[in-house]
Design goal:
It is built from six helices and four strands. With about 220 residues, it is of the alpha/beta class. The protein has one domain: P-loop containing nucleotide triphosphate hydrolases (Rossmann fold, 3-Layer(aba) Sandwich), CATH 3.40.50. A four-stranded parallel sheet has the order 1-2-3-4, with helices on both faces. The longest helix has about 50 residues. It is globular, with a radius of gyration of 22 Å. The chain starts with about 35 loop residues before the first helix and ends with a helix. The structure holds guanosine-5'-diphosphate.
Length: about 220
């Protein structure tokens, strides 16, 4: 699902909400886009949506490979950033290496750092284990158990991917794009609604004033 602006290629149009990776560690388990968002898109009541998505994690866990694997049509902008740049993110992706326990251990610190300048109620969190191809099945199962536990605790959605083979990378980014899009449209609609409500209150205040004046002039 995309808004009317700018013109988008057919393969960038998402009609169905992409599914979570595993139900145990999915914060949003609904099947489709929010009905209000669907209606807004169909009625072209929403404009261009640009979301700020931050990717954090230890050096070497595979952040660069993960992003490069995704077909973003060159829209991504990389930066080594100061933590103030974290402010105003719509989504935070905390990356760890499924073959390196320490990197999962550090995930919580990365998240705390990235959340410092953000409002927890309005940021979507994702915990992503990379290098799935490298892990032995037993080690993978153990790491995933820990990762799912952490994702439940921090209210993040868990995914396991491989930038090498490409496994789940596209599905993951479609999910990030869709959930972020949905959340942005919902908050935009909410802002418009409260703006309209404020206008109505202002108008009725003016009416009251006029009405009072008229009443008082009648009595004179
Ligand atoms: P960053 O420092 O987090 O950006 O990590 P990079 O993306 O530079 O990756 C660090 C190293 O891990 C590189 O040598 C990559 O080739 C390797 N790597 C990244 N992702 C994967 C993966 O999914 N599987 C395997 N086997 N290696 C990976």
């Amino acid at each position: 699902m995309m808004s009317s602006l700018p013109p988008v290629k057919e393969d960038r149009i998402i009609c169905e909400l992409p599914l979570y990776f595993t139900r145990d560690a999915a914060v949003h388990t609904k099947d489709g886009f929010n009905i209000t968002v669907k209606e807004a898109c169909q009625g072209q009541k929403t404009g261009l949506n640009v979301a700020k998505v931050i990717v954090v994690g230890d050096v070497g866990v595979g952040k660069t490979c993960l992003i490069n694997r995704w077909d973003t049509a060159g829209q991504e902008r990389f930066r080594c950033v100061a933590s103030t740049y974290y402010r105003g993110a719509q989504a935070i992706i905390v990356v760890f290496d499924l073959s390196n326990y320490n990197s999962l251990d550090h995930a919580r610190e990365w998240l705390e750092d990235a959340m410092r300048d953000n409002d927890p109620s309005s940021v979507l969190l994702f915990l992503v284990g990379t290098k799935k191809d490298l892990s032995h099945p037993d080690q993978l199962a153990q790491m995933e158990q820990e990762a799912v536990r952490l994702s439940e605790e921090i209210r993040a959605e868990y995914w396991a991917v491989s930038a090498l083979s490409g496994e789940s990378v596209r599905d993951f980014f479609l999910r990030v794009a869709s959930l972020t899009f949905e959340a942005t449209v919902l908050s935009e609609l909410e802002r418009n609604k409260s703006r309209q409500a404020r206008d109505i209150v202002k108008i009725s205040n003016n009416c009251d004033e006029k009405f009072k004046k008229r009443q008082s002039s009648c009595c004179l």
